[in-house]
């Protein structure tokens, strides 16, 4: 399991209890749409209140696998 990685993408196969990622390893890909303006800034996005990620393009995580 990836150490202390929290994730709220409940449509992902690796989503576990307490919003913990259960994947052995994760790959996060910056796809050029981040809104961060500095190295210390954090970008967080949303698909909407009821939207579900269906593939990795809907997340920043290339490890995403639909349930």
Write up this protein.
This protein has no helices and two strands. Strands 1-2 form a two-stranded antiparallel ribbon. With 67 residues, it is largely without helices or strands. Strand 1 and strand 2 (20-21) form a beta hairpin. The protein has a domain at 1-29 and 52-67. It has strands at residues 15-16, 20-21.
Mean pLDDT: 73
* Helical stretch tally: 0
Subunit arrangement of the protein: single chain
Give the CA-CA distance, first to last residue: 17 Å
Which radius of gyration do the C-alpha atoms yield?
Answer: 12 Å
Question: Could you tell me the strand content as a percent range?
Answer: 5-15%
Structural class: little secondary structure
Q: Give the biggest sheet.
A: 2 strands, antiparallel
Elements, N to C (H/E): EE
Strand order of the largest sheet: 1-2
Secondary structure elements and pairings:
Blueprint lengths: L14 E2 L3 E2 L46
Antiparallel strand pairs: 1-2
Give a nutshell description of this structure.
The chain has 67 residues and is mostly loops. It is 0% helix and 6% strand. The chain has a domain at 1-29 and 52-67.
Core attributes:
two-stranded antiparallel sheet, little secondary structure, 67 residues, 2 strands, globular
